[in-house]
Amino acid sequence: MTYPALEVHQLSKRFGGLLAMDAVTFSIPVGSLTALIGPNGAGKTTLFNAVTNLFPPSSGAVRFMGQDMAGLTGARIAELGLVRTFQTARVFPGMTALENVMAGAHRHVRASTALQMLWSPGARREERVMADKAEALLDLIGLRAFRDIAATELPMGAQKNLEVVRALMARPRMLLLDEPAAGLNDSETAELAALLMAIRDSGITIMVVEHNMSLVMGIADQVIVLDAGRVVASGTPAEIQRDPRVIEAYVGQEV
Amino acid sequence: MPDLNGIIQIVIGGLLQGGVFAAVALGFSLVYRVTGVINLAQGAFCVLGAMAMYYFQTIFHWPLPLAVLGAIVSATLFSLLIGASTFVPAVSKLPVSSVLVLTAGLLTFFEGVALVVWGNQPYALPPFSGEAPVSIGSVRVPTQGLWLAAGTLVMIVALWWLLNRTKIGNALRACAENPLAARLMGIDVPRMMLLSFGLAAAIGTLSGILVAPITSLQFDSGRFFTTSGFIAVAIGGLGSFAGSIVGGFLLGVSEQFAAFYVSSLFANTLALLLLLVMLIWRPQGIFSSGPQRRSDVRDDMRIHRPLIRLTTSKAIGFGLAFVVLLAVLPLVQLPSGVLSSLAIAMILFIAVLGLDVLMGYAGQVSLGQAGFMAVGGYAAAILATTYDWSPLAGVLAGIVISVVCALALSLVTGRLRGHYLALATLTFGLLVDSLTVGLVDLTGGPSGLVGIPSFAIGSFEFDTPARMYWLALALSVVLVVILQGGMRSDFGRTLKAVRTDQLAAAALGINVGRVKVVALCISAALASISGSLYAFQFHFLSPEMVATPRSFEMIAMLVLGGEGTLVGGLFGSLVLTLLPTLVQSLALYKTAAEGALLVITFLFLPEGLFGRLAMWIAQIGAPPTPVPPASTPKLADKAS
Ligand SMILES: Nc1ncnc2c1ncn2[C@@H]1O[C@H](COP(=O)(O)OP(=O)(O)OP(=O)(O)O)[C@@H](O)[C@H]1O
Ligand SMILES: [Mg+2]
Q1: Residues B352, B261 share a domain
Q2: pLDDT of residue B320
Q3: How far is A179 from chain B (nearest CA, A)?
Q4: Which residue of B has its CA nearest to A90?
């Protein structure tokens, strides 16, 4: 039996009197790239927070690869292979760029803490393999030369890219990316689009929050439009572009 | 069983006591609301006020009203001066946990100043209006109690009026609710921080002046007020003014009842247990306060020290040279006492090393490490003296008990964050303090435990300072190497991730709770070893050798030496242990210097002594470090 990668059913989230997310339902096939769009305050980040149980949903169900996520901690969910990034870059201060990426590999580390402390050859070997892999990923985003400087000293765009490859280092089955292109200029955004497609082609399911319509339309297999906490439309990019409700949601916001 | 009168008498005593706690708690809440930091120096303001009062009243013979005014103004001005030059710049520069530790340094500094001025005997000021108590019905109240009650009431009303009915109050509350918005509205936020600090100082000063005739005070009474006020505010609700007041009175009354029904030795213990129960049952306090902030939006996770990475060859080379240097030290002719001090510094370093794992790497502030030292020290000492265990077995038993305590504490702290964690560890330390004093049969009580044998492994006795020094040195080297193995691997990365960004850490599958527990257990085990060796070194152990001031001292050592460096703590512990030995005349100034050094290091040398040294070593012959790119680098063409 094959499951969709992510299945969200009637998911709602209430903050006091505010219904930030209202009975959101959708499903994402394995290996697809889904874009989540919607005006500011639509509830996109809230959706990510609810799916990863950072702020558990008020009601509704989330299934990841067929497994019910209710009650699981954020760390447990990441261990299952659902890894997210944050809207504001959250590289770890006090760590180099390389260490930041390697931190992503935590869930794959086999050597116990005790073995690491005893400098066991196995642990050291594992560490070297991880470092090589992290360097390759840094290479991908053009940061190899800066592997040893503090990650927080990098420009904002580079930090956001770093966060994406840190998530990749965790070898996720599915990535949730919250506005990875925020703060990037046009050419940088185009590069990121290529990177996202490459990640998708390597078999990792992606759901990405993005404001830039032309980017979304170019790369997404599926688009979900959120407005005021509700799914107002979903479908292929072409369908979405023609949908009057989507135009309304965005135009309505501009006034 | 006391009659109704007796009970009323107890309640009144409790309310009087509680009034001071409430005032201190109010000070905490005020500063916390505006700056987001608990100012641990709050209790010291009481002593500063009383001390100034002593001079104006008893030495200069000013008339009472003038003396009170003079004392408030001078003590508040002094506090403001210190606050403006340390606390306020720190709030805008350092991570919150560091500011908390910095205020611990301020507390120590104020204490040290009081020690220099007042010496270490207690002072009781004359009551405002005579010794004779007034009788209300059949209940007798000291007149000073009435002054205290009236003063507390006036303070509460004045503060309420200031906050709710004046423009300044509006600005203060705006800062508390949203500093960023306040800044955009044109409010001078640093000024408001200073103002809150000054107001809190004035409150503390006045309550110190009022209470000094009832409870005699001495240089380190500030610690008592800080912890009691801290407990009060935790019971009532951090940042809530009503909660502070209620918490203060609740604590005062329950302590009086405990003192009456159980024993004054355990009054403190019961208050602490009350707090622990409170922390488990309702960590936000009776009155929770403030709007919940969105935690997925990054709150500021600053890290203010530079990144230092030594290459392996340099670390090994310089490390070996340094160890050899330390190892041959006892062979040179050292002035008497210096070798013992060296041994003590080395022993303390082991505990500081543990603290570094917890605080320097995992970012969890512990104000109670001495509690684990006490557990290790007393466990080993009691087992070795009363039960004839071998010292080594005693040390191991101490470790086991300490780790069990740490695990139990984790049950409390696991759900707590930030200030509450520091609070829980402080509570633990104080709890152990009061038990070591109170359990006279087991610990020998305040006069201590004598006749502790030398440490021995098999038949080899470590009975000279040199041998203890070498033992501690060897152990330290082994521990540093082991910990470094962890720090340069995944374990170290998870600690650092937890320190700065727990949400992002969890999103990568890092079990934040587990990481904290492991770090706490490591620090507890090392503190315990250190405590045991400490007892064996002195052949004697008394509660004040491993009491809460020791926790603060170890923090000062760590910060001075350099957090997050493992080795740094040794530099701090050497400086702070050896200086008073080498320059005996400095001994009086030790406390003040400890506090001042902690504060100054935080502000001006965030990498610490060793950190600075390591930065120099890292630069020797190293290729120039790449400058961070000015713009986002191009991505590789083809993603693999
Ligand atoms: N923890 C919270 N407490 C209170 N309100 C919240 C919280 N999290 C989100 N909200 C509210 O829920 C609504 C949706 O917010 P959310 O951040 O999910 O929007 P978004 O679609 O991600 O917007 P943006 O494009 O600006 O990132 C907003 O009105 C927001 O203020
Ligand atoms: Mg968002």
Answers
A1: no
A2: 92
A3: 13
A4: B504
